[in-house]
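The aim of this short unit is practical: by the end, you should be able to scan a pair of folded records and say something sensible about each. We start with the first protein, listed as its amino acid sequence and then its C-alpha cells.
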Amino acid sequence: MQRRTKTDRAAKAAETNADLEDQADLAGGGNAQTVAAGQLRSILERIERLTEERQAYADDIKDVYAEAKGTGFDVTAIRTLIRLRKMDEDERQERESILDLYKSALGMA
C-alpha cells in the first residue's frame, strides 16, 4: 500500500474541486447549491477512503507486532521503544530522570 503525503492529498483535493466546478458549469451555470452538494459529497468520499486506508494500516501494524511476537520479541518493549523514538531527546531525558527519581523514592533503584 502506498502512503500519500499531505501534498498528494492537497493536489487530489484541488483536482476534485476543479472537476466539481467543471461539472457544475456543464450542468448549467454553476448553481452554488449544486457546487456545495458536490463538494460535500467529495469531502465525505475522501474521509471514507482515508478511513479505510487508516484501517488497512492498522491491520498491517497489527500483523507486524504479531510477527515480532512470533519471533520471540517482547511486544510491550517494542511499543515502549516506538513511543520513546517519537519523543525528542530532551523530553525523553526528562521522563527518564523523573522515572529514576520515582524509582529511587520507592527503593527500586
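Turning to the second protein, read its sequence before its C-alpha cells, just as you did above.
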Amino acid sequence: MRVNRFLKLGLVVLVLLVVLSVFATRFLDRGKAKSTAFRTIPVKQGDLISTISASGVVEPEEVVDVGAQVAGRIVAFGKDSVGRNVDYGSTVEEGMVLARIDEALYAFDVATAKAQLGYSKTGLLRAEADLIQLQAKLYQTERDWNRAKKLGPSDALSQADYDAAQSAYEMARANVEVGKATIAQGRESVALSEAGLGKAQQNLDYCTIRSPVKGVIVDRRVNIGQTVVASLNAPSLFLIAKDLRRLQVWISVNEADIGSIRVGQQVTFTVDAYPGQTFNGEVGKIRLNANMTQNVVTYTVEVITDNADGKLMPYLTANAKFLVAQRGNVLMVPNAALRWSPKLEQIDPDSRKHSGHKPASPTNEGASGKTVGGVVWGLAGDFVKPFQVSIGPTDGSMTEIQSEEIREGMPVVLGEKSSKNSPQGAASPFAPQFSTKGGGGGH
C-alpha cells in the first residue's frame, strides 16, 4: 500500500512538472515573439565603380555604298588585290574595277554621237567657206556701188542701173551677216555634238564600276547576269568599309541615363563572339535624333574603338558599360539598406522623431559630384535608430555613403528576419499547404 501511494505521488509530481514546463515554454515563446530580429550586414570600405549598361551594334566607322548610274546586265566582276573575283571580304584599292555592265547599247550611242559631231564640224566648215564667197560678192558689189555713186543717175547711167547697184550692195552686205550667223550656229552645233559625245562616253564609262575608295567589301548585292535598273535611285551594288581598323559601336541609351553620358567617356564592351574578352572605347558622339519604341525614348551614342588586331567584325552585338564614376576607398552599403524603412514601434524611442523619413534610392548623381541625402538604420538594443548619410554613386548592388557617424564594420539593417511565430510576408494562396500536426513529412 505504501509503495502504491509513493507511485501515485510520483505520477502527480511528474504531471505537474510537465504542465509547468509547457506553460514556461509558451511564456518564453511569447516573449520572444514580441521582440524582432533584424538582418544586418557590416559597412564595407573599398573601391566602387559605377557604370551604365546598354547594348548596341558594331558598325564600320565609314562605309561607302557603291551604285550604278546606268542600267544594264552585269557581265563580269573585277579582280581584288590578290587577283580573285571581287566578293565578300575582298580588299580593294581606289579606282579598282568592281564589276562591268553590258556596254553594247552605250557603245552605239558613242558611235552615233561621234558621227553627229563630225556632221556638225562639216557644216561649220561649209558655213565658213560660204562666208568667204559672200564677202567676195560684197567686195564686188561695193565697188559697183561706189562707181554708180560717182556717176549718179545720168546719160551714162540710168536710174534703174543706179538702183540695182545700190540694192546689190546692200543685199551682199546682209548676206555676209547671214553667213557670220550661220558660222556661229555651226559652232554651237559642234559644241552641242561634243556635249552629246561626252555624255555618251561618260555613260559608256559608267558601265565599268570602280571602287571610289580603298577598303573592304562588306556586302556584294548583285550577281553575274543580273540586270540593274538605274532610275531615280541608283541601285546599290557593293558596300565598302573604308577602314575596319577603326570601328564604332552604336549603343542605344535610355533617356533616364543619357544625362550621365559625355563625349570622351570611357566605355568597355563585350561581344558573344569572344566570351571573356573585354574591349575598350570612348564616346565619340551623342546623336540628338532620339528614337521612340513603345513609349521608350532612347538616344544613339557612337563609341569609337580601335580594331588594329582585326578581331571585331561589323554588325556584332555589343554589351557595353559606360564608366560613370570611379571611387576609391569609400564606405559602401547594399542598396537594400537604403531602401528599408522600419515600423514606428521598431524605432528607438529617442529617435522616433525620424519615423517620417522616407528611404532614398541609390543614385548615379555622384558622377557629376552631386550627392543626395538618405538614411541607414543601425541597431540600438532591441530597436533601430537612423543615421543620416550622403548617398553617392552605385554599381547596381552597392552604394557609396558618407557620414561622420558611420565606420567600417558597423552593422546596418537590411530587413527583418523570418521567424516561426511571425513569418515574413503573406503566403501565396497558390502555394501547397502542409499539415503542421504530426504524421506528415512536410516540414
